[in-house]
Structure formats: C-alpha cells, structure tokens
Backbone:
C-alpha cells in the first residue's frame, strides 16, 4: 500500500533488504516468528493507522483536550484510535510471552509504531509512553508490581506516563523537590506518600482507560526531613490513578498546557498529595518504591532513552509524511513551463523543487534509518552473544543523543521545505504540512533539548568511551569498503572516511570537565556527529540497493532513488561536517565574550 503518509515499500526495504531482520528469526526468542508473521504485523499496523489514526489527526488539532470537574477529556476519535491499538494486541509486540507479549523483534515493533506516528503523532504518544512505562516496571519492579502495573498496560487496560520535570527544575532533575515519605508496606512493596508538583506530563489524565500508571521521580527525606540534595536522593515510585482497592489516589491535574502542536494528547500540570483525594483517610499520593532508595534516576534512564529514540522516530515520521505530501503536491500542481514545456506542467519538473524534494527524502529516510538501526541494536543487546550484547549496548549509548536530536532538527528542516513546495497553500490549514511542522517543532525540546544532548554526547559519550567510537568507525569502514566497488559511490566512501578522520581527531581533544568554550561548541559537535552517522547509514543503504538480491526484486526507479538520495546527501550535507567540527574544536569567543547587557 502507498498513501500520502506512508509508502510501505520504504519500510520493507529498510527492514528486509538493508537491516536483514530475517537473520534475527533463527534466535530462540523469535522462534515463533517468520517474515510472513512480521509482514502481517506491518499490514495490520498500516491498515489500522490509516483507518483509525489518520481520521483523528486534524480533529485533534482543532479541538484540544479539555479539563472540567470530572478530569481531562480527549476527543472520541483519539480515544477510539488508542483503544483500537490496544485491542489489536500491538502494545504487547516485543514483550515477553509470559507477560502476554508476542516476543517480536524490537526493530519490527518499532517499524509498526512508525506507521502510527506517521498517521497521528499525538495519538501514537499514548501507546509509546505506555510501552516504555511497562517495560521499565517489568525490568526493575517486583513480581507483584509487574502483575499489578505492567501487565494491565501490556493488555491495554491501563495507560502509562513518566513524571520527571517540575516547574522550577526543567531538565535539571537534581533540583526536583517532590518529596516521598515512608508510609509502611503492603503486598505491592514499600509504600510512600508523595507530595509535590510535576510539569509537562503527557497523558497524565484522560478518559481513554480507567486507570493510568504514573512513574514518578521523587526525593526521599534526609535527617532534617527535607529532600536529599542532588541526584543520589532520587528514587522511583509507581503511583496509579486508581489504587488496588478501587479508590482514587491523591493525584490530580491542576492545569493543561496549550501547545502549538501534538494537541491530541493532553500535556498537564500534575499535583501529588494536594488533598483532593484522601487514600487511607489522609492526604498524600500513594506511591510504591521501585527497587531501592536512590536508584530512581538510573532506573528511569531506561525509559528516558527509549523515549528519546521514539521522539527521534516520531520526528522522522513527521518529516516523512511532510515529504510524501509535498511530493504528491509537486506531481499534481501545474505551474510554469519547466524544461520549455508548451503548457503549464507539474512543478516537480522545476530543478529547485526537485532539490527540495530530494533534501526531504535524504533527511526523512535517513532519520528513519537511524531510528531503526538503534532498534536493531536493542535486539542485539537483548538476544546476541555476550560480547555482541556489550558492543551493542555501548554503541547504542553513543548513538542515542544523535538518534533523538538529528531527526528532530533535520525533520523540522524537511517540514520547512514541504511548506515551501506548497507555496502559499503551505501556510494555510487547507493542507496538512503546516500542522505537521507545528507538531514536529516540539521534538527538538522533548526528552532533552538539543543543547542538553550535545553536552551529553561530548562530555559523556565521546569523552568516556572511545571504544564505542572505534566500533562505529569499524562498521563505517566495512560500508566504505563495499561502496568502493561501485564507481558512483566510491567518492562517497572517500568523503565518509575523511569525515570520520575529523571526528576521531576532535574526540581525541576532549577534556573533562568541559570548559565554557567546549560547552559553547557541543551542539556543533552533535550536528557533525549526527551528519556523519547518517552519511554512513545512507552509504550503507545505497550499497544494499545495489545488491543482486535487491535488484532482482525489480523496481529500478525505487532503488535508483535510494542511490540518488545518498549521493545528494554527500554532495550537499557532508561538507558541513568539517565546519561544525571546526566550531566544536574552537568554541565561540563571541558567545562567551558578550556581556549579558549586550543582548
């Protein structure tokens, strides 16, 4: 099937021709699956996304969630779409069979989610958060907690959230002040009373499911009764909206944030323990400790990293949808006489339009490839041999800042071009591209801003684990060697090696802790790194398009498009890597020298 929001052939190429996910199916965990079962999941995902998620896309933008005395409400189309997703069993995709899961490869489940993100990014956020929530509980929770809180989410009876940020703290989680005070113990573990406020919490209340499972970061008290300072005092708690006895927990939404995009899922101000409800006869939201005191941030990093990769995937699919829609428009819109045509002809004939389309293709499909490659690493980390698992873990750790940020930044650039191709119609509400842009503008901020990710890449990933970058270089060299056999790709191989030479040289100069000058160049380093990684992936995809197996499938134009996008990326984008690395290496005197009063 091919539609305005998805061309299934693109997903099939990435999964089967490039990543060769059939190679995973010989592993014990995936013994029940075949190419046919995975294709059936994608068929179901594609059809359900088109039938239930696409029709809710514009209505959800036009009527935001609303708050009244009964709580938060979403439009019926959103509620129906999310319930249909759960009813289809898709939430269970990659979970263990003993939890009711399908034990599908994570990369296949990620491709399934991509269909829904392209169709309706805000509706897809409900199951995305829920799966990450349930996976964290399944990993770190007690058996009783897994049964009470993870299984209902996997079965679709409850949805989940992550409650980290607070109004005064933002991304600085060391400064959160929500307090968790011991309150005894019951069958679900050590019980605490939570008091405090959380901000920017997506899906924290709605009328889709009867229960919502909140994962909450909070601090336990020190000897003086005040929250312990820094990150070591942070613990993780499960605070359901509805408790095991059926009573309401002391968790309420006190306000909604009105967003420029992503409007189908409510974004909330959430209060724990303000006395609106009194479980057990007194105020304070009941939360159950996950693991041990002080482990909260380390545990939450699993969900945060999963969410970061999914934010990148969502940004990629919004870029892809905008590309698909601007391509269709360019094929239909008659204007001008490109190439000396005797009558008005489709604008796809204009070189400038063609360049904007090819840029979108390179950005969007490169971003999807990055997301799926990371998902493939997760499968390797879960099911590979011990050495391969450790290698995959370290490589995924290195790639995560780029997997979140590069699609978010470059996906937005793609959406900008989609609007441009539509001309005046692009900034009207008659076409989806203006909404797609607004939706995607949130992603460079979601789950750690671009600046935060840059500092993480330079100060932690590149500085602390040179072996991970060396492994990335090894994989790049294998791709370059294959590409060298194709005359039109050989120059790309040489350019890729040169880019990685520069990247290696920069990484070798990093000193920690990062100086102010190094911090001023961290975002430039992240941009260079992301471009280098995506350049490698594009060259790898281009060589996959040149294999006899791929060519035997026919569709020469489709495969030629992959090679053309690769060559375009190397012509137009790879030269930017050197400039960014120069800026990263020297920092910016102008940024640091200007007095505050000079802005």
Residues:
């Amino acid at each position: 099937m091919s539609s305005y929001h998805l061309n299934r052939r693109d997903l099939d190429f990435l999964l089967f021709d490039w990543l060769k996910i059939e190679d995973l199916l010989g592993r014990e965990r995936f013994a029940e699956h075949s190419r046919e079962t995975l294709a059936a999941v994608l068929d179901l995902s594609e059809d359900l996304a088109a039938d239930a998620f696409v029709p809710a896309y514009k209505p959800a933008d036009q009527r935001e969630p609303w708050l009244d005395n009964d709580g938060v409400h979403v439009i019926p189309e959103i509620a129906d779409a999310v319930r249909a997703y759960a009813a289809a069993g898709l939430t269970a995709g990659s979970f263990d069979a003993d939890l009711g899961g399908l034990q599908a490869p994570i990369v296949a489940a990620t491709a399934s989610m991509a269909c829904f993100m392209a169709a309706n990014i805000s509706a897809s956020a409900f199951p995305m958060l829920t799966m990450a929530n349930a996976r964290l509980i399944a990993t770190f929770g007690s058996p009783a907690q897994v049964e009470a809180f993870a299984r209902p989410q996997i079965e679709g009876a409850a949805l989940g959230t992550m409650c980290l940020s607070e109004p005064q703290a933002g991304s600085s989680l060391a400064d959160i002040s929500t307090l968790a005070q011991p309150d005894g113990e019951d069958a679900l573990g050590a019980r605490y009373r939570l008091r405090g406020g959380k901000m920017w919490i997506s899906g924290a209340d709605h009328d889709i499911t009867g229960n919502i499972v909140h994962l909450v970061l909070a601090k336990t008290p020190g000897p003086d009764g005040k929250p312990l300072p820094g990150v070591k005092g942070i613990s993780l708690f499960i605070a359901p909206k509805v408790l095991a006895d059926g009573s309401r927990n002391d968790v309420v939404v006190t306000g909604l944030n009105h967003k420029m995009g992503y409007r189908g899922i409510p974004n909330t101000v959430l209060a724990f323990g303000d006395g609106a409800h009194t479980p057990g006869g007194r105020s304070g939201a009941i939360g159950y400790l996950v693991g041990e005191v002080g482990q909260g941030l380390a545990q939450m990093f699993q969900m945060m990293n999963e969410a970061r990769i999914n934010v990148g995937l969502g940004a990629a699919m919004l870029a892809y949808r905008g590309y698909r829609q601007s391509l269709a428009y360019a094929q239909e819109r008659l204007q001008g006489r490109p190439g000396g045509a005797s009558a008005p002809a489709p604008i796809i004939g204009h070189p400038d339009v063609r360049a904007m389309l090819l840029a979108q293709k390179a950005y969007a499909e490169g971003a999807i490839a990055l997301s799926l490659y990371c998902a493939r690493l997760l499968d390797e980390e879960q099911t590979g041999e011990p050495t391969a698992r450790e290698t995959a873990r370290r490589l995924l750790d290195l790639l995560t800042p780029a997997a979140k940020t590069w699609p978010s930044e470059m996906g937005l650039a793609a959406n900008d071009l989609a609007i441009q191709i539509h001309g005046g119609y692009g900034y009207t509400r008659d076409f989806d591209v203006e909404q797609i842009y607004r939706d995607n503008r949130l992603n460079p901020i979601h789950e750690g801003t671009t600046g935060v990710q840059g500092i993480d890449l330079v100060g932690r990933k590149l500085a602390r684990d040179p072996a991970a970058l060396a492994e990335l270089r090894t994989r790049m060299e294998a791709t370059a060697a294959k590409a060298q056999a194709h005359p039109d790709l050989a120059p790309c191989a040489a350019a890729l090696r040169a880019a990685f030479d520069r990247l290696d040289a920069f990484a070798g100069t990093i000193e920690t802790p990062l100086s102010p000058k190094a911090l001023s160049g961290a975002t430039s380093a992240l941009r260079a790194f992301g471009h280098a990684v995506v350049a490698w992936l594009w060259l790898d995809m281009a060589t996959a398009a040149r294999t006899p197996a791929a060519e035997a499938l026919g569709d020469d134009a489709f495969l030629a498009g992959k090679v053309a996008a690769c060559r375009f990326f190397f012509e137009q984008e790879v030269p930017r890597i050197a400039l960014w690395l120069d800026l990263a290496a020297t920092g910016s005197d102008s940024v640091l020298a200007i007095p505050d009063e000079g802005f």
